[in-house]
Amino acid sequence: IQKRWRGYYVRKYIHNFYALKKYLQAVSVNNAFVRSELQEYIETKENEEKMKDLEKKEKEKKYQARKMHYLLSTEQIAGIYNSPFRKSPDPMELLLRNSKPLSHRRKQVKSPFAYELYDWPTCKKPPAFVAELPLPPIGRQKPQGPFRNTAEVLWQRYKPLEPTLRVAESINSPLEKAREGIKREEWRNPIHDNEFLPFSSYHKYESEKYEPSLCKSGKYVREAYGTKHFREVYPKKWIADK
After folding, report:
1. What is the pTM (predicted TM-score) of this model?
2. End-to-end alpha carbon distance in the chain
3. 229 has which bridge partners?
4. pLDDT confidence of residue 37
5. Which residues contact 136 (CB under 8 A, 6 or more apart)?
6. Confidence class of residue 17 from pLDDT cuts 50, 70 and 90?
7. Nearest CA among 111, 112, 128, 130 for reference residue 120
8. What is the pLDDT of residues 96-121, one digit of tens each?
9. Sign of the CA dihedral with 118 first, then 121, 122, and 124 last
10. How many CB atoms neighbour CB 16 within 10 A?
11. For residue 27, what pLDDT is reported?
């Protein structure tokens, strides 16, 4: 009796079958509605992605058309996209007609004072350094050795430049210009002052005759040097008999 009563009571008041059935039907309807909403959201997202891809491709095509605007057809010569063997021009040809040529970007000229170091020590003006250094801490000891004063070392390091007369003199001085003129004349003039006298004008210059080379003045024969003698002797040219 208790078992049957407990079963009846639980099925009627705790786990009601009809109420559970209604709840499950409501859940199924809600699930179908949510699924339909999610499907619409997915479709709209896909359409947006497709539109973005199409816009990106259109922008790339327009950029390529602006970049290759020089391939546009003219009245005299047809372009590569407007072949005479085609019935109608290529869509790229129509895009080239409607687009403007791509202009070159102007380079940004950086200011010469952008990276200038105003505090950098120059040769004209020595940097301002502290002659009297602050006192060292109490626990610090003076290093042993023949060390000079820090202010004296800094003055020697950053002392002004004392250029010599050659360095201080301007490049465009009259002396340098005269030297450059002399150098140009020396380079322009011939190296050898003695002119070569050809055979056609041999009779004109009797005082200055052509001196043939000592090595090539003989006939073109095999030299006997090394087989018969090792040093040629000319007795007619001797000053003394010895």
Report:
1. 0.34
2. 169
3. 225
4. 95
5. 142
6. confident
7. 128
8. 888 888 877 777 766 555 444 444 54
9. positive
10. 13
11. 96
The percent of residues above 90 in pLDDT, for the chain, comes to 20
Q: At what angle do helices 91-98 and 17-67 cross, to 10 degrees?
A: 70
Least confident span in 7-21, 75-89, 130-144 = 130-144
Strand partners, 225: 229
pLDDT at 235: 83
Residue 44 structure tokens: 């709209």
Only one residue has tokens 């973005």, namely 52
In angstroms, rounded to a whole number, what is the distance separating the alpha carbons of residues 63 and 87?
26
- Cβ-Cβ contacts under 8 Å for 161 (sequence gap 6 or more): 123, 124
Mean model confidence pLDDT for the chain = 78
Question: What token pair was written down for 90?
Answer: 């290529």
What DSSP designation does 84 have? T
Report residue 8 as tokens.
């009846």
Q: 69, 99 in Cβ contact below 8 A?
A: yes
Collect all residues with Cβ–Cβ distance below 8 Å to 17 and sequence separation of at least 6: 11
User: In the chain, which residue ranges form alpha helices assigned H by DSSP?
Assistant: 2-9, 17-67, 91-98, 150-157, 165-168, 174-188
Predicted local confidence at residue 119, as pLDDT: 46
66: exposed, middle or buried (Cβ count in 10 Å: 0-12, 13-18, 19+): middle
Is the Cβ–Cβ distance between 101 and 69 less than 8 Å?
A: yes
